[in-house]
Amino acid sequence: MMPCTVTPVFEQFATSYDAATPIQSQVAEHLAQLIVHYHTGVTDICVVDVGCGTGKLTQAVMSKFLQNAALTSAQLYGVDTAASMLAIWQQRVAHLLSMPLSSTPVSSLPAPTMTLHSQALCANMADMALANQSADLVMSSFALHWTSPSVIAELGRIVKTKGQLHLAIPVAGSFYEVRLRFPKLPIFDFLPSHAWLAAIETLQQQRQGTLIYHTEQSFAFSYDNLKSLLKNLKQMGGAVSGKDSIDTATFRRYLQDQSPIGLDYQLLMIGLQL
After folding, report:
1. Structural contact between residues 85 and 20, judged by C-beta atoms closer than 8 angstroms
2. In terms of pTM, does the model score above 0.85?
3. Which of 75, 67, 62 lies closest to 112, judged by CA?
4. DSSP 8-state class, residue 48
5. Terminal alpha carbon distance of the chain
6. CATH number, domain at 166?
7. Are 85 and 53 spatial neighbours (Cβ–Cβ below 8 Å)?
8. Long-range contacts of residues 35-41, Cβ cutoff 8 Å, at least 24 apart
9. Pick from 135, 181, 184, 220: CA 20 to 30 A from residue 246's CA?
10. Own/partner pairs, 253-258, CB within 8 angstroms, 24+ separation
11. 108 within a domain of the structure (yes/no)
């Protein structure tokens, strides 16, 4: 028997992660658009990116916020367990500091300035060293599926009253084409949407919050063949896992299939104001 398992090893694949994750980039951009839509007129903000990885979501959100002339200060926190990922997150944040603001000064008034502070926290997302109700915006994309819905309580703990929680979580229904064509290939068991929605509803009731939006959307990317897809999954640091092994003959037969294969994710998108 030949094992065919990829487990989360983000520490080793930080440098290849960005190039290997086009879908994650699409989702980060989509979630960022939702976030800034519900944060109009913000003057100062504390943002926590949970499971921030290399900073795709932080960059997508803050590059939009920085075009808002009203924003005068921001405190950014990136939370992840992989120090190598956090190092790239910090580089991205440093790049944000060099971005020009969009507003044009009127007559002789000085150009607007904005204060931006950041801190990388190497911590488990289920136990973050942040104070209760300390963040205006807590967000997470493509990270929570590595834990359980109980993490929602921890994320909600650090959201201020009238602050917001925005999430993009891969759920059951993901990897549909792979499952259909290669049924014996061990695949990560994504939780169904209702498991996450139940945790969100509990938090909403506890904090008397308001559900801003709740949608499910599919995002996909095509690869030349299964071998190419599996290589990509390995380079992103872990997206497929399995409790069982696949026999060598079956695995080799799968790899002989040279037809294109799509990698698809079903994403649960949630916005909650507390």
Report:
1. no
2. yes
3. 67
4. E
5. 50
6. 3.40.50.150
7. yes
8. 35/61, 35/137, 35/139, 35/164, 35/166, 35/271, 36/61, 36/64, 36/65, 36/68, 38/164, 38/166, 38/212, 38/271, 38/273, 39/65, 39/137, 39/164, 41/70
9. 220
10. 254/182, 254/184, 254/185, 254/226, 255/226, 255/227, 257/181, 257/182, 257/225, 257/226, 258/224, 258/225
11. no
Compute the distance between CA of residue 30 and CA of residue 146 in angstroms, rounded to an integer. 21
Query: What span, in angstroms and rounded, lies between the C-alpha atoms of 234 and 5?
Result: 10
What's the total number of domains in the chain?
A: 1
Task: Please report, as a single letter, which amino acid is at residue 241.
Answer: S
* Residue span of the structural domain in which 135 resides: 10-97+113-273
Domain contains 103: no
Query: 96: closest CA among 71, 126, 132?
Result: 71
Per residue in 113-167, pLDDT (tens digit) is 678 889 999 999 999 999 999 999 999 999 999 999 999 999 999 999 999 999 9
Burial (0-12, 13-18, 19+ Cβ within 10 Å), 129? exposed
Question: What is the identity of the amino acid at 255?
Answer: L
Q: What is the pLDDT of residue 17?
A: 85
Is 228 a member of any domain?
A: yes
Identify whether 4 is part of a domain: no
Q: What is the mean pLDDT of each run of 10 residues along the chain (274 residues)?
A: 43 81 96 93 91 96 82 92 93 77 40 76 93 97 95 97 97 95 90 97 97 96 95 72 73 95 97 97
